Amino acid sequence: MPNIKPVSDLRNYNEVLRDVAVGEPVFLTKNGRGRYAIVDIEEYEKNAAILKLMGELSRGEASAAKNRWLDISSVERELGI
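and the corresponding structure tokens:
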């Protein structure tokens, strides 16, 4: 169940931060609408790494579509394996 709090609860930020855990962010609302999310640094770093990986995979896929795909024997030859 999502942990949702009004942004005004940040007056006592220690209580808000205590509720943050890996995989369990705290969502803050402003004027009754979702505005911010506080996540554990481990969760943030994991998400950043996933986004970077997805970007690199997308670039590789675009490159392969433009320049053609290589079969495994061509890759091994290129790498000297």
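(Above: one complete record from the training split.) The mean pLDDT is 93.
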